[in-house]
Amino acid sequence: xxxxxxxxxxxxxxxxxxxxxxxxxxxxxxxxxxxxxxxxxxxxxxxxxxxxxxxxxxxxxxxxxxxxxxxxxxxxxxxxxxxxxxxxxxxxxxxxxxxxxxxxxxxxxxxxxxxxxxxxxxxxxxxxxxxxxxxxxxxxxxxxxxxxxxxxxxxxxxxxxxxxxxxxxxxxxxxxxxxxxxxxxxxxxxxxxxxxxxxxxxxxxxxxxxxxxxxxxxxxxxxxxxxxxxxxxxxxxxxxxxxxxxxxxxxxxxxxxxxxxxxxxxxxxxxxxxxxxxxxxxxxxxxxxxxxxxxxxxxxxxxxxxxxxxxxxxxxxxxxxxxxxxxxxxxxxxxxxxxxxxxxxxxxxxxxxxxxxxxxxxxxxxxxxxxxxxxxxxxxxxxxxxxxxxxxxxxxxxxxxxx
Length: 403
Description:
Rossmann fold; four-stranded parallel β-sheet; single chain; 48% helix
């Protein structure tokens, strides 16, 4: 979503911009810019070519069959079945592309970029793609900008020895980038420390959204959640907090994506709510389209996604703020730097359902709740919209191209 908003805004500013999907087709609730661009390093091709020599020799027309959107989407739904060991091996292979069996995929990407308008700069949307930096700089002779978007949680979840090897390799690879960008000061500090970079080596450019359609809330009385329906995003904490509130007049609305295996997790939460006699007070809204999402946000009185891991930014937070919804978030990760400056929410103790319940109750009873929501909207209009994001990226592009 961040990448699509950035590409759209750069195009509006007169830049020729391509949004290039990697591994899988982009799953968006809005129209994708540059829809004709094919998927590169398609997930099926990458897996087969890494595992079996015969697939490295197949003609490209056969590769395109495996890159069919329907087939890749079907694979995405079963991605939770991939073992941690396989994820570790593949992550290290993508970071060590010269040593991998994926040369054919590198060739296809580089040739497409040269043929369809050689870029003046390439932006990698996350550092897990840092293995491309050397090859793209060598083949295209253009600067490469690498952005961070929460890679630490993924890498820390890999088993040994892949975890340590991936961190070590990423540290070497990002050093080849012409610029590094983080969506928050918090996460810039995290990655500078973990990758052994100098303080200030990473530029900070907050993520931004396309504000079209985001309007102030309509005064609803719901506690809202909008993120993937999983443990890591804190959905279980929010359900427990709702049970602690124990108020049959309150309503909880849960929206977001349901990935592989999430249905089992959600079913367990629904069982817990039923035991507490609150099942009829909660509505579940998976996989909303853009219009449904905007209507949902505008119906809320309080918003919370109490994530349980170090969040690099949290675009869902900005979406709620854009609709004037006051928020209750953990006092951790990037949230303090966003909320304390905006003055649009309450920070609570991380991983505590009881303190989360306290914060939600405090917000619901706050006579200045509407004013706090308005402050959040102004913060998005000032700092967290696509135009502000694109303007800061233009500055980075100007620096690296001039070199």
